[in-house]
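> Could you send the C2H2-type domain-containing protein prediction when you get a chance?

Sure thing. Input:
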Amino acid sequence: NGKQIMNVEQSGELPYQCSDCALTFSKRSDLIVHLKTHNGDELYQCNHCNKAFSNNTDFTEHLITHSVNDIYKCRQCENTFSTKKSLKSHMKKHICEKKNTSEKTYLCSLCGKCFSMKCNLKTHYRTHTG
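Output:
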């Protein structure tokens, strides 16, 4: 039975529905907490995922999980990115900067790959344009 509940939650199914407003939930416990909002109990409800909390501290901690997941921060500089792919591309820039400073490096602005010769960078650009 516990395995079935886990499978439902992982699949993204929302089998628990509120009879008052038709909002659906993957966990029965989330539905029970939500039902209290219709009883007039003061609850804090997340606008991102509709999860509800009985106290402001838990609610605030939960809100942070949404903002942290949306931002990828470079550990070497203060730049932030909305996707992990963008951050990875950016990190390659730092790799180029760490190479021998006497050796000039050429950075692909489209993917962040580094080249020691300008002609190799030009050839590489063709992989992006076809």
